[in-house]
Every structure is written in C-alpha cells, then in structure tokens.
Specification:
- The protein has about 240 residues and is of the alpha+beta class.
- The chain folds into two domains: about 25-120, Immunoglobulin-like (Sandwich), CATH 2.60.40; about 125-240, no CATH class.
- About 50% of the residues lie in helices and about 25% in strands.
- The protein has seven helices and eight strands.
- The chain has helices at about 1-20, 120-155, 155-185, 190-200, 205-210, 215-220, 220-240, and strands spanning about 30-35, 40-50, 50-60, 65-70, 75-85, 95-100, 100-110, 115-120.
- The strands form two sheets. It has a four-stranded mixed sheet, covered by helices on one side. It has a four-stranded antiparallel sheet with strand order 3-2-5-6.
- α3 (about 155-185) packs antiparallel against α4 and α4 (about 190-200) packs across α7 (about 220-240).
- It is globular and about 65 Å long.
- Mean pLDDT is about 90; it is low at about 1-20.
Length: about 240
C-alpha cells in the first residue's frame, strides 16, 4: 500500500512538473507586475501589415502579476496592451523590444506607459536611449508649434518666417541624429528598426549607409530584411522616376 502511494505521488508530481514546463517551442519568457491593477486583461501584440494583432491574452483577476511564454523568430518590437474597459489612449499601450530569453516588465496601473521598467533585452536598452533624445526633439518641436500659433495670431510675418526656418533646422537635426544613432547601433536589430520606423523617407543614401553597417545576423533579421527591401524599392523607383 505504501509503495502504491509513493508511485501515485511520484506520478502526480511528474505530471505537474511537465504541465508547468509544457510551453512548446516558446523561447521568450515574460514576467511582470502592474502595481495597482487588480482586474483587467492584457494583450501582447505584434505589428502585422498596418494593424496590431494579439499573440497572447492574459486575464488578471485579483493579482497584479502576469506571465507569458512566446515563440519569436528573433528580436522584434512587441506591444503590451492593457484593456481597462475604458477608452483607449497612449497610456494603454506599451511598446517593448522583445528578445529570446527572459524579460521582465514592471509598471503601474495609473502610469502604465511612463512608469514602465523593462529588463532582459539589449535592444530595449538601446531603444530607451534613443527615446530620451527623441523626447527632447519633440519638446522643441512643440515649442515651435506654440510660437507659430502666436505669430499667426499676431500676424507677425517676420516671426512666422523665423519659426519656419527653425522648424526646418530642427527636422534636419532630428533626421541626422536618427541616422547616426541607427548607424552606430546597426549591429543590433534596433538599428534597422529605427531606420524603418523613424526615417523611412530619408535620403536613400543614408538608409544604405545604415544597411551596410548591419552585421550578417542583423541583415538576416526581420527588420534587416525589411530595410534591405525598402532600399531596393526606393532605388528601383528612383531609377524609373516613379
């Protein structure tokens, strides 16, 4: 009888262990905590054509912690969307640069986007460095927009011209900064990603420079292939004057 009990216990333990570790061919393990959230639904999404599609759904009911096991072909930008049952806003969707391995996403319910702390991805670290500088350009642009409205209201033609020149200069600076940043980080997948998402309409010479700096592995990645294709199409279009 004792032997039977031991066998049953061992069998149950084996089944439980297998169930816990049965994640198929998943190569990305995400854990996280959304402080202050007791109930809600999370969607992990990826871009598909012009929309976002869910690749995992997580229901939270009584706990702010979550976990997901995913299969990805390589580093790519994913999105953690929080459904609070309210109107969607920018603070409901959190982009993160996923990489195979273990990642952690900790944030708050009331500051879902701005309070996020994401670890476990080198591409994410680089992307966050870029966003810090991008925010400065955004702030400067908003200031110029304000000045333009004031000049328009006052009918100040000279000031409008000055603001227009400042806006053009700022745009060039932003493009050149992004080109240099993507070029300097072209050995990571975030390099071609930024080229595609931030400056896809830049001079093809700049895009080509970034592409030529990609490592062989990055060139074969999702965004590396996409950047190569965009450059190919841009050059083809230029040659045919389309």
């Amino acid at each position: 009888m004792r032997n039977i009990i031991i066998i049953i216990a061992a069998t149950l333990s084996f089944i439980a262990c297998n169930k816990e570790n049965d994640h198929g061919d998943a190569n990305l393990h995400i854990t996280g905590n959304i402080k202050g959230l007791g109930k809600g639904k999370l969607y992990i999404q990826r871009a598909a054509d012009t929309s976002l599609v869910a690749i995992d759904t997580i229901v939270l009911n009584g706990s702010s912690e979550f976990e997901s096991h995913l299969k990805i072909d390589g580093p790519e930008m994913l999105y953690l969307f929080l459904d609070r049952g309210q109107t969607n806003s920018i603070d409901n969707n959190l982009p993160f640069f996923a990489e195979p391995g273990n990642m952690t996403i900790n944030t708050r319910n009331d500051e879902f986007f701005s309070a996020a702390k994401i670890t476990g991805s080198e591409n994410q670290k680089i992307y966050e460095d870029f966003l810090k500088i991008k925010s400065r350009f955004t702030a400067q642009n908003l200031d110029l927009v304000k000045k333009n409205l004031e000049a328009t209201k006052a009918g100040d033609v000279a000031r409008l011209d000055s603001v227009a020149k400042a806006s053009e200069t700022l745009l060039k600076r932003r493009y050149l900064y992004t080109v240099n940043f993507a070029h300097n980080n072209a050995k990571h997948e975030v390099g071609p990603y930024l080229a595609l998402s931030e400056i896809a309409d830049a001079n093809v010479i700049y895009l080509d420079t970034i592409a030529k700096s990609m490592s062989p592995a990055v060139a074969k990645s999702k965004y590396g292939k996409m950047l190569t294709e965009v450059i190919k199409e841009r050059k083809k279009c230029k040659a045919s004057k389309c």
